[in-house]
Structure formats: C-alpha cells, structure tokens
C-alpha cells in the first residue's frame, strides 16, 4: 500500500511540474485528440457557421500525432481545444463556439507539442517583427500582435469581414493580341507604396494607353521591402500595400478605366515563414514526408523551398489559391513566376532544365484547364523559357509565354549592331500558330534598364553620341519602341520605362528599394518619350494591321524594317539603329502616296523606298492613314 501511495504522489508531482513548465515557457503538455470524420461544409482553414458565432477550423497535416487550436478565444491554451483527427490521419479539425462575428480573432495551430504555426489558408496574418513599420494611412486600425501570448506569425479570422461592393461588373477584358501590359511594383511606384497612392496615378497610366497592369507579387511575403518572390501565405494580401478592400477597390477602379489586372503568382517555391514548410522541416530543409515540398530542389534556379507539383496535395493547394484570387478579387490573369520549375526531373544547368518535359506539360495543361473551367477568358501567362517545342505545346493549349528581347533590343538602342537582331519577337519563329500567345518585352523587373546601358555603354560616331547623352539615349528608346509595338502580339513594359528610367538594377541591391522618379515626368526630353510611347501604343491598339499574320522583316543590320500587310493596306516601319547615316533600300510593294504616322507623307515613283536615314531616325509609313 505504501508503494502505491508513493507512486500516486510521484504522478501528482510530475503533473504539477508539467503544468508549471507550461506556464514558465518550458515543455507544454500534449493534448488528447479524438478521431472523427470531417463535418459537412468543412474545408481547409476556417468556415463560419451559425451566423458567424461558430467556426469549423481545419488543418491538413498528415502523419502528425497531435494538434490543438490556440488563440484569443481560449487565452492561447495548448490543452483546452484539442482538434479531432480524421480516420485517414490527414486532417485535423475542431468546431469553436461563442464567437462574436464582428471580432477579429488571432489564432495558431499547436502541433506535436513543439510547434506553433499559422493557418496556411488564412486571409490575414500578424507579424511581430514587420507590422510595426506599416502606417495607419496604408492599413488603418491594424490589429495588435498578441505579444506575450505566443510567438511567430499568427493567423486572423473574422466572420463579418468588411465587404467591398463591386461597381464595374460589366468589364470586358482586352483581347490577348491587343494587350499592352504595364508591369508594376507597388513598393517602388509611389512614395506611399500602397494601393490608394497607386490608384491616384491611373490618369498617368490611362494617358499612356496601357490596358493591363501586372502587379508583382502581392500576397504575404517575408519582410516588407521585397519584390515578393519570397512568399509565405497565399490567401493573404501583404498588409504593407494595404487592406483587402483597398486592393479590391484598386482592381475595380482599374476595370472602370478599361484596365485588366494581372497578378504575379509564385507557386514554384515558398519560404521558411510558410506554415506548410514549417510543418515538415528538419531545421535545414523539408523532410521526405512533406505533402507539398521536395527535400531538395529539382532545378538550379530555385530559391526557397521547391514545390512538388506532381503531388496531389500541391495540386489541390495550387488550385485552391488560383480559384480564391479569381473569385474573391476578380483578378483577370496570372503571370506564373518560374513556371519551368514545375518539374520533378532533376537538372543541374539550364541546358538540362529547359529540355522538353512531358510531365511538366501535363501539369500545366491540368492547371490551365482548371483555370479555364472557372473563367474561359482568363489570361494564363508563363515565365517559362523552355525548349521551343515545349512552349509550342503550351501555346497551342491557349497559354501565353513571356518573350524576353531585352539583350538584342538593348544592343540596338546602344548602337552595337552585331547582336541587335530581335526577330525572336515574332511568334512564327517560336512555331506558334497565333501572335496572341507571345508576350514580347524589352524590359521587365528582371532585366537591366535600357537607358542605364544606353547612357553607360552607348556607341558614338563624331558628334552623334549615345553614351552620357540623355537626349540621344531617350530618342534611341523611342526608336526601339516603334519596333516593339509594331511586332504583332501582346506587349509588356516595365514601370517608368516610358520615361527612360536609368537607375542600375543593382542599385541598393538587386531587389532593394529603387528611387521613385516622378520628377522624370517634368523633364521635357523624358516627357517626349512618354508621349511617343502613348502615340505608339495608340497605333497598336487602334489598328488591327499591327496584329497582321502577313509580315516580313529585316532586323539584322543598321537599317531595320518591319512590313505588315492587311487587305489593301500596308505598313512599313523603318529605322536606322546605326550611329552613322545609312541608306534604306526597301521594297514597299507599291508606288504612290505613303502616309507617315509620325512625320510627313512621301510619294514614291516606284515600289522602292530609297532614302538616307540619320542615326536614330525612324518612320511608320502606311498606304491608308492609321487611326
């Protein structure tokens, strides 16, 4: 009997020590979990029922031994809300009651007695380190982080979230081949770096004539000052740019101006702040039992942790993310970052990485089919850069492919001709059946700015000098823009390229903050470039001949030209990219009067156009006047 009493005393003492350790920040007790099937209506994350007074909260976490829900509704206790585990061991869920539908509740999951993570499906997170730098003007009444109650990123849920009333339900998207996309980083576009301040610049953008904005990643990423390619939460807009309703209003107002909004979507990888990474992590990389991530990246261009897109768990998650943004935010398209990385074939260099990959094609056809089942007219744009035969299959399936012409076009603007042939801009050279599937650009967030290289490395001959000469370097940008917008198919420009932005891409580090140069707009030379862009974009959008399937060109030498034919009309774009006078000798196809969209008309006595062009001189001739 004494032995039994002694053992009972030891058990009581042990339990008391455990409880004290829990309150002192030591080892916390493990909750007792039950097994039960998911209730009807439950899904990943929080689903509110009973008019918002109850919520069913669910976590997909196969193989875990215990999970409990902790948060403001139970004073962050790790034992009072043990979650039920489904019979297959994959899902954990619990119903919590007595909630106020109008209250924001911070919460986390407590997993296996040693890990606290936020909800991967939550629409808002609180960050103990970075939220303090978000101003009230950008995010009014931001909920305070529960300091002293828990650690790490926490989720937020609320039944009665502020609702946005959409005004422009009848928005009609521009056709693919007529898209002129403006790629934009909220952080470096205005000093206030938020949706409201960006919205205030819509007059500037509509004046330019663009009809789509591509926002660099806007879902929660690590830190605040980022390009956004280090994502962690895929359903939560990053608070550094503003509230959910501010983003919805931005999209709505763009639609009201005839501007589509395309979202840069990063599903090749995720970063360590992600609860999906943390749930299956050995301290240095994902574990082999992760439902979503490869232990090691399969390709040499990966950053963060590499998603396995052949995993059914990853497919489901990715589709959930896509559907959410399409429906909740009325986004018009996705530009998928590093889409070539959606592979399970291992490679050590780009030569291997870009080879035709049937499994990768199957993944993208599946995602594209899913997106089109929700919205048949949705833009699906891939940053792919794989073997041409693979890109052709994807284009034939209706996807659009990024087409980088930066190097060759920049050689042309600098006046260095050997590598200045940018015929890769033509869709037929890719084997594509339609121009609408190739998104051509001379600048993107990832490329050195044309005018930085013009001013730093430009060619010269006699008094004609590009290097160090702002006026001349800007005219060279106008010259190449005339050709860019004349090549059939959708086009993209990088923010402030229309003003000749000339700050090195590596200024303050490649992804670091860049000077916001709205003063450029008051410089007459830079404003002249903006006006030229606007004129060229208008010509592209208003005249179907710029999407003609009948084209010839010569883009290898100093004198370059593009010839487009549609019905009875012909357009010839001709320019001298050399730094000395050059004679153009081009078969226009017919004699007589030709109208110059940027200058004076000419009258040809024969089919042949034979003129001496000064360096940087260009013309856009047509038989019938262009609109």
Automatic annotation (TrEMBL):
Keywords: Signal. Pfam families: Alpha-amylase (PF00128), CBM_48 (PF02922). It comes from the Bacteria. Residues 183-540 form the Glycosyl hydrolase family 13 catalytic domain. PANTHER family: GLYCOGEN DEBRANCHING ENZYME (PTHR43002). Belongs to the glycosyl hydrolase 13 family. This is Alpha-amylase. It comes from Pedobacter riviphilus.
């Amino acid at each position: 009997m004494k032995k039994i009493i002694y053992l009972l005393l030891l058990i009581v003492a042990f339990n008391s020590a455990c409880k004290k350790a829990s309150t002192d920040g030591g080892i916390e007790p493990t909750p007792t979990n039950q097994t039960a099937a998911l209730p009807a209506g439950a899904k990943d994350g929080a689903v509110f029922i009973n008019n918002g007074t109850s919520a069913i909260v669910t976590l997909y976490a196969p193989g875990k031994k215990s999970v409990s829900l902790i948060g403001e509704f139970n004073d962050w206790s790790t034992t009072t809300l043990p979650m039920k585990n489904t019979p297959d061991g994959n899902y954990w869920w619990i119903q919590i009651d007595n909630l106020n539908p109008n209250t924001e509740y911070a919460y986390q999951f407590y997993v296996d007695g040693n890990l606290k993570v936020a909800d991967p499906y939550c629409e808002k997170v609180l960050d103990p380190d970075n939220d303090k730098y978000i101003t009230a003007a950008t995010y009014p009444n931001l909920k305070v982080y529960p300091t002293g109650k828990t650690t790490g990123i926490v989720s937020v849920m609320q039944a009665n979230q502020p609702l946005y009333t959409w005004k422009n339900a009848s928005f009609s998207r521009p056709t693919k081949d007529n898209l002129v996309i403006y790629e934009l980083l909220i952080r470096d576009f205005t000093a206030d770096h938020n949706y409201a301040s960006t919205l205030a610049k819509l007059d500037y953008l509509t004046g330019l004539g663009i009809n789509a904005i591509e926002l660099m990643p806007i879902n929660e990423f690590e830190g605040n000052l980022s390009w956004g390619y280090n994502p962690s939460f895929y359903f939560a807009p990053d608070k550094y740019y503003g509230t959910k309703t501010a983003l919805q209003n931005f999209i709505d107002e763009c639609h009201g101006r005839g501007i589509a909004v395309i979202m840069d979507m990063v599903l090749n990888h995720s970063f360590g702040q992600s609860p999906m990474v943390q749930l299956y992590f050995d301290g240095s990389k994902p574990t082999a039992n992760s439902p979503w991530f490869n232990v090691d990246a399969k390709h040499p261009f990966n950053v963060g942790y590499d998603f396995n897109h052949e995993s059914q768990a990853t497919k489901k998650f990715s589709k959930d993310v896509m559907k959410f943004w399409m429906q909740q935010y009325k986004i018009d398209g996705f530009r998928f970052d590093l889409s070539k990385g959606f592979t399970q074939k291992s490679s050590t260099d780009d030569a291997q990485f870009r080879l035709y990959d049937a499994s990768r094609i199957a993944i993208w056809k599946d995602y594209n089919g899913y997106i089109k089942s929700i919205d048949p007219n949705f833009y699906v744009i891939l940053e792919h850069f794989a073997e041409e035969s693979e890109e052709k299959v994807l284009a034939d399936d209706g996807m659009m492919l990024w087409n980088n012409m930066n190097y060759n076009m920049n050689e042309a603007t600098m006046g260095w001709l050997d590598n200045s042939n940018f015929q890769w801009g033509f869709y037929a050279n890719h084997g594509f059946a339609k121009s609408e599937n190739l998104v051509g650009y001379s600048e993107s967030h990832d490329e050195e700015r044309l005018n930085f290289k013009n001013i730093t490395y430009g060619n010269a001959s006699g008094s004609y000098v590009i290097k160090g000469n702002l006026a001349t370097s800007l005219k060279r940008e106008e010259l190449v823009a005339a050709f860019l917008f004349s090549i059939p198919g959708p086009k993209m420009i990088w923010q402030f390229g229309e003003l000749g932005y000339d700050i090195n891409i590596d200024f303050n580090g490649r992804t670091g903050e860049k000077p916001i140069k709205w003063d450029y707009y008051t410089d007459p030379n830079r404003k002249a470039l903006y006006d030229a862009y606007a004129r060229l974009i208008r010509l592209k959008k208003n005249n179907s001949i710029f999407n003609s399937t009948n084209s010839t060109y010569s883009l290898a030498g100093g004198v370059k030209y593009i010839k487009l034919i549609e019905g009875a009309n012909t357009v010839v774009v001709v320019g001298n990219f050399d730094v000395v006078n050059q004679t153009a000798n081009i078969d226009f196809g017919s004699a007589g009067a030709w109208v110059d969209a940027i200058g004076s008309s000419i009258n040809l006595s024969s089919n042949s156009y034979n003129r001496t062009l000064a360096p940087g001189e260009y013309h856009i001739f047509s038989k019938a006047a262009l609109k």
